[in-house]
Design brief:
Elements: H1 2-12, H2 16-29, H3 34-46, H4 50-63, H5 68-80, H6 84-96, H7 102-114, H8 118-131, H9 136-148, H10 152-165, H11 170-182, H12 186-199, H13 204-221
Helix pairs in contact: 1-2, 1-3, 2-3, 3-4, 3-5, 4-5, 5-6, 6-7, 7-8, 8-9, 9-10, 10-11, 11-12, 11-13, 12-13
Length: 222
Amino acid sequence: MKTMEQVQRLIAEKKFEEAAKMLDRVISEHPNDPAGFTNFGNLLIAMGDSARAVNFFNKALELDPNYGSAAFGYGNALFELGRYEEALTQFADAQRAGVNDGDLFYMIGRSATELGRSGQALAAFQRSVELNEADTEARFQYALSLAKLGDVDAAEKQFLTVIEADAAHADAYYNLGVIAACRDQITKARHLLHKALELSPGHILAANGLKSLDKKQTGRHN
């Protein structure tokens, strides 16, 4: 639907007022089409009004209970509201309705992470990366999950792939620095943490990491 493509482009460009006007017209002309309500919900999430977005996704699902895009959008809104368990329920509904892309599994992983379900998060992020290898943020979250579960070598490979794709990813450099420090590769760790700070001067964790390394080296010289 050409109109919906225009709406999605306007949302991506943060031209929210234009998108809202277009969607108002779509909904008034096609009140039984869940697409208009779903996209209005997505617009509200982009505007930071996830609480209101829930109503639009509900309306879309009343019109078509198997409308996967609405279930996915509903899950995103619930995630933004901190309702992670309910978000996972909606993501499962979206999957049953035929949604099967990297974004869905990324959000399942994010929700599972918030709920402390490391195994579920790892599996979801892995699937997200398999479906969309270019998604650097999904790969970064996958690497974090691997590290959290103790598979440091595999995590390191993924963090390195992240910075190959995005040389300005400060958090990936920070985590590589932590891995190097844990292996007692102090010079390498210092270089990686400095790189993280260079890319993100307000990176508190990297700054603290460097202080810890300084203390460690000072202790050795005493």
